[in-house]
Amino acid sequence: MNEEWIVKQIEEKALPLESAESLNVLIDAVQDKHYVLLGEASHGTSEFYKWRMELSRKLIETKGFQFIAVEGDWPACYEVNRYIKQYPGAKSTAREALEAFDRWPTWMWANEETQELVEWLRQYNTGKPPEQQVGFYGLDVYSLWESIEEIERYLAEKGTPEQLAMAREAFECFESYEREGQYYGVSAAFYGESCKDEVVKLLRELHDKRVRLGSHDREAALSAELNALTAVHAEDYYRTMVQHDAESWNIRDRHMVSALQRLTDFHGPDAKAIVWAHNTHVGDARATDMLADGMVNVGQLVREAHGEADVLVIGFGTYRGTVIAATSWGAPLATMQVPPAQRGSWEELLHRAGARDRILLLDKEDPMLGHETLGHRAIGVVYRAAYERGNYVPTVVARRYDAFIYIDESHALRPLHIQKVLV
């Protein structure tokens, strides 16, 4: 690898990131695309949230994007959606709405950066007719029991006695597992004690019901349907994860794409969607070592479904700084140091090209960045800097993303310190 040649190319092509106006080059790159996928190199970096918010605001205001879909649970995100659209019975403040994120890792969405976004969305929606209001939704698969509770609550209010009875019969199957996905997964995978048939039947019923409803109750019915879809795929996810790590990953990302598709269908044939998720989800898996492991992700699947010309994927990264993470699953959050990126990695080459924040538009036909494999740092909710070498994903950068936002020195986001509940 010719590192100095790559550094020279970065110096020539990268643009400064200094203010919201700096993002206009990315807005221009969107053109008439319907999907913009915004990544992050960690779930605990303030700048990633800040710049995604600024980009999302511009996409909503200037390009007519209709909703933000995030790597978060549907029930908690829908509580935020109800708040920003000022539905009857919604929470009275953004912080109260964000208290719905009470399951570890709470800081991913219960933080001051997201609170600022939520307050802006509510202000933007104020006075607009329902069809012009911007939504906020969750795509993830983990909320099996929370989704079950939301379905039952919805059917108790809006459903028929027969539908409510069907739901309760389906959910009785899960009651003995004490809200522990792994307990259920072991029983289903090794002992054949699956609840899938009952939940799939319920999902079909809820989808048919939404199709028949008028516009007034359509979003509430959509929420029930997405909760049921989550329950179907969560059942599959937990059943699979005890035996097949790669396949459980695929189930999760395929679920996120299925949820995204139902959201775009709901918003109409010309719907425009913004997705917030980790780089490992939005950056095309085919440009990483995930391909050899038989893994897919959101970025790959959305590109394949809609064509690369209709999708813009933006990755994020940092050279060094601080981050909110935990030392093990379920452990208390902490502010941790992110050491300088390893020599020869994508982040280190960007730093070598100049210690300042930058935007880089990428071309998959680039003779180096479109073909050369570089280490690219990924930090999860669990982070141990002592094992830093294992945090680098082999990546062909210009094939993984269409653009990249680089923060030379980043800072930990500001959690709201919602009560932590483990799963």
UniProtKB/TrEMBL annotation:
<dbReference type="InterPro" id="IPR014622">
    <property type="entry name" value="UCP036794_erythomycin"/>
</dbReference>
<dbReference type="InterPro" id="IPR007815">
    <property type="entry name" value="Emycin_Estase"/>
</dbReference>
<dbReference type="InterPro" id="IPR052036">
    <property type="entry name" value="Hydrolase/PRTase-associated"/>
</dbReference>
<dbReference type="Pfam" id="PF05139">
    <property type="entry name" value="Erythro_esteras"/>
</dbReference>
<protein>
    <submittedName>
        <fullName>Erythromycin esterase family protein</fullName>
    </submittedName>
</protein>
